[in-house]
Amino acid sequence: MEIRRELFSEHELASLPELAQEIERQQLFAVYSAPEALFTEQHGVNPNLPALLAETQTLNARQLKLSLGHYQPGFDFTELKVTLEQHPVKLVVENDQTPDCGSLSLLSAFFHEAENNCLPVRMTFDMANWQWVGQDALAAAEHLARHVSYVHVKAAPLGHSGWRAIALAKGGNWRDLLARLPQEAPRGLEFPLQGDDLEEMTRHYVNLLRAE
């Protein structure tokens, strides 16, 4: 399950240890998602990263998910690598919906250099966010699949007010896209669930993904 930091008040963040216990009791595992970028507009590492890693560890989540932000090729990864190696938490970077920071070229450059520098960071591949930035998700999968350790599953048609996330059954090439990504990577549903029985609806989509 994915725990989204933006849904917590500052007061509620103090309850992360109790939430961690409940997740363990339910025999689940968590990814902690923070609405922040790894790199600031000044091309430096987010100064909140150590605190976010600590929160992730408190939650006993396996991964901390951030967007890439304003990465600049040629960045010296030395200090970032030390910070990440001090925590058992795995950092994953997601392709977001911003043309400046979510493009295939920038993400490819980052993961190429991260790999060359043995930086312990992997990718969250959001299947539909490529449409927000006007790029081909299948091409992105071909270039980035080896870096992917978590997949955000959703479809997104273009409507009068722009792109919007919808359920898989109404989507297009999501099966072809999943087939190009690592089959062992956990998959998270990221679209609105609608219906009278949300538990049954959730079970339906979980089973649909398990069949792929």
Written account of the structure:
The chain is an alpha/beta fold and 212 residues long. The chain has a single domain, classed as TIM Barrel. 34% of the residues lie in helices and 20% in strands. The longest helix is centred in the middle third of the chain and has 13 residues, at 104-116. The protein is globular, with a radius of gyration of 17 Å. Keywords: Isomerase. This is Putative xylose isomerase. InterPro entries: Xyl_isomerase-like_sf.
Shape: globular
Order of helices and strands: EHEHEHEHEHHEEEHEH
| Structure classification | alpha/beta
The number of helical elements comes to 8
Cα-atom Rg, whole angstroms? Answer: 17 Å
Mean pLDDT: 87
What's a concise summary of this model?
With 212 residues, the chain is α/β, with parallel strands linked by helices. Helices cover 34% and strands 20% of the residues.
